Structures are given as structure tokens and as C-alpha cells.
């Protein structure tokens, strides 16, 4: 099996078997102000939101995780079937393997998502570093591969820096992102992979014309940590050390959400989002939706209904937060009052938020 595909399988195994979680997303420092007299009926609260011109039943995104190895087909099938059943959004993992390798079983790990989710909002995924090698026609092939409604361009340069075989040439990526955003047939979302997007970078992306920003901040799964485990397995001790050193590097998700939302009107908050209450806090900070990745991985291995159960739990947690803040809709939740404490408050003060 080629290197890119093997790496995808390694990633899933490490996430399932090793400690790759970090704390500090910042949601514990955000407290929504309780409304003792909400004057609304909980079951009539409207949780729908719009993303890329599509209405979702809840502001939940099954974040880009995997694809590119036959072993990942089962996972993506369960996730996509659940997205179809509950009308939430889903992204696939990097499609580089599908674009570069001629392998039908490998390709199925991506195409399965549209096969089982004909109506779901699905988005594709390519790396910013790969845009230096691809033209827009190549990215369109990624769109066509899953009949995507949008395309994510992921930023993962810390991860690449830790990989023994990583691509560490980040020159010219913003120009390529701008070109793809202006020419691609579907909306473009730029997403980090666990280290967050600061306001200044979000402004550059907004100026480049991207349709959405997924902050994927520090505080959840650490890809630096994952690559540290991979480096150790192949005896690359220096990369292993660097991965450990930068394990908790980045802009905390709560901070990154507020900073990006200050300059772009379509922000997805991900990175350490672990509950519907976290999603509610992210929306109060300005996000359009909240995304989760690792929490869906175990349920996906058990089957579609387990994924659906998690989504329904998240929705009830979100609905409860809306009820006790007097928010009858997602738009009202975006205006909900909150208090910022601790480390996150220090960030806000130092960053002028």
C-alpha cells in the first residue's frame, strides 16, 4: 500500500490507541448567562442553521477525519449515513490519496459518502501544500469524487513539520487559496487541523475570498502528538521530540472562534468541542456551527445508529443551552450574553477582543 494511504491507516490506529487529547480549548472559561424566565417552549426552539447555502437541522459538523485507505470505508459510511439521517454536515479526510493513487478500494473510502448520503451537505478536502502542485482542475476532481457541496482546504503545517516525510514548503499558499476560491465551482472553507487561526490570518483569508473558516483550534486532538507517535515508531527521535514539544501549541478554540468571527461571517468552531453546550458557547462567540471529529470515531466503528445517537445527544444538549439562555433560534443564541473567565479572558484582553 502506498505511503500516503498507509499514513491514513496509521493515524486512525494512533487516535484509537494512544493519548492524543489536549485540554485548553477555552470553553470551560466561557459561561453563558442563565435566563430564569426564558418564556419559550423548549421543544419549539429552532436549531436550524444555514451553511454554504444549505439548511441544516442543527449546527453540527462531523469534521473531516479520514479516507484514503480501504480500512476507513466502514467509518465514512457510518458517518455519512448518520449525516443523511439527521441532516447535519460532514467532511471527508484529505483526498490526496484518491487523487494520486489508482486504487478502486481506496477510492471507495471517499465515494461511499455520497453513495449513502445523497442529500447530505458533504465537503471535500485537500491540503494547502498540495495546491502548489495541483491546478483548479485537480481540485474539481476532488469535488466530483464525492459530488461535494463545498471544498475544505486544510492548513496543517505544524503536523507536516513533525512528520519525517512532511511537506514544509508553505510559500505561495495564500495566493493559491485565493485562486481556488475564485475559480472553483463550489464554496471554499479553509480549516486548520488543531492549532487555530488567529484574527490576522482570518482577515487574510477573508480578503482572499474564502466562503468560510473552520478554526480547528488548540484544545482537542493534537496532530503534533499523533505524528510524534509515528516518528517514534520509525526511529525518528528528533521529530518525536519536536512533536512532543509542540503538542499543545496553538490558539485556543474559543479565542480563535471569536477572532475569526470578528472578520468573517461564516465560522465553524472545532477543536476540543465535546458537547452541545460547547457548540452553544461557540455560537455565542460568533460561530455558525460547531464541529467534532474524534468523538465520532468510536461510534462510527460501532455503526450508523451509534453515530445518530451521539448527534441526537448533542442536539438535546444544544437545545437545553438555548432554552436556559432564552434563545428561541440560532440567531438569538448568537446574541446570548456570556462571561469570560481565566486564561481565555486573559487572551481576550491581550488580543483586544
Automatic annotation (TrEMBL):
Residues that, per the record, bind Mg(2+): 160
Matching Gene3D superfamilies: Aldolase class I
InterPro entries assigned to the protein according to its UniProt record, in alphabetical order: Aldolase_TIM (IPR013785), FMN-dep_DH (IPR000262), IPdP_isomerase (IPR011179)
Enzyme kind, highest EC tier: isomerase
Keyword Flavoprotein among record annotations: yes
Cellular component annotations (GO), alphabetically ordered: cytoplasm
Compartments, record wording: Cytoplasm
Domain FMN-dependent dehydrogenase span(s) in chain numbering: 22-95, 168-335
Physiological role: Involved in the biosynthesis of isoprenoids. Catalyzes the 1,3-allylic rearrangement of the homoallylic substrate isopentenyl (IPP) to its allylic isomer, dimethylallyl diphosphate (DMAPP).
Name of this protein: Isopentenyl-diphosphate delta-isomerase
